[in-house]
Amino acid sequence: MRPDLKKALETALNEKVVITKDKKEVVMTKAALGIQHLVNGFAKGDRYARRDLFQYAAQLGVDLHAKEVLEEALGLAQKP
Would you state the pLDDT for residue 1? Predict the structure, then answer.
């Protein structure tokens, strides 16, 4: 049963959807759309999105430059 669930999840994540972005229709996978929603939640200050984003980024090897991002968000960034 486990391989069937994995395949079902992969199939669902790779389904294409049409969205409107900047007054244009764009075709995206559901996975890409989900990532955009996660990042948007993070940008709005959602603590759960922040937690999930940092977790996924670490698992995928994405360097978020967390210190710089947080300093900038908090207004603590060094200005040249």
Answer: 60
